Here is the input.
Amino acid sequence: MDLREYMSVRRAYNLVRQSQPARDRLTFEEFAVLCRLQVAGEPLKTSAIAEYQGALRPTMTHRTNHLEELGLISRGEGGRDRRNVVCAVTPKGALHVEELSSLTCKEILPGQPLSRTQPERIVKYVDAMGSVFAKAGDLVLLAMYLEDSGPVTITGLVDELGLLQPTVSMSVSSLVAEGLIGRGPSRASGLSLTPQGSVRASEVAARIGEIVVKRRPRGQRQAEPEQVAEQAGE
Here is the structure.
């Protein structure tokens, strides 16, 4: 997966998440769990979902608890071993996946990567992207890593990432303390990655580059809008 595609989807979903009522907001990882269940088309063991996201059992329990409380998934015993809890997307959850993927598409501006992609394809992107955990600080590093024109500002990062300013500011402060970002002598001089920050960002970017988004079987594939546009000479 291309890093710019990854960042385009993450920015769009960050904006969608802010627009949701506080109680209903899903983290990107929770949205990815729903997409994984939707793409699978069958119940999955909680342990399998945790392995796919590289999450510890308590973390995954917290995520699935929230999704179940919202009525988006159901959980039950899997097979003879009662310890094998399985999760399945509910009809409400399936509708929510469609809604969130559609809203995410609308937040990807023309000219940005995947701006012509359809909601059902976004579901597969989010499903695949869920295998790489990137917290707010990682997204800040990646945004700066992609910036070729020099130092950036907090305001620029807020716009680039679709995150709230307090979230970006706290992440930047933490990254400065870790020695991954350097501040200029004044606010106007902006923020820059340190050598260590560049290394950290490149490591996260490398993991993203290994993400594989499944395509439709050849016999079932239809030309996506970007392909149609190319064929039309746009």
Notes: The longest helix spans residues 3-19. The two ends are 24 Å apart (CA to CA). The CA atoms of residues 180 and 196 lie 6 Å apart.
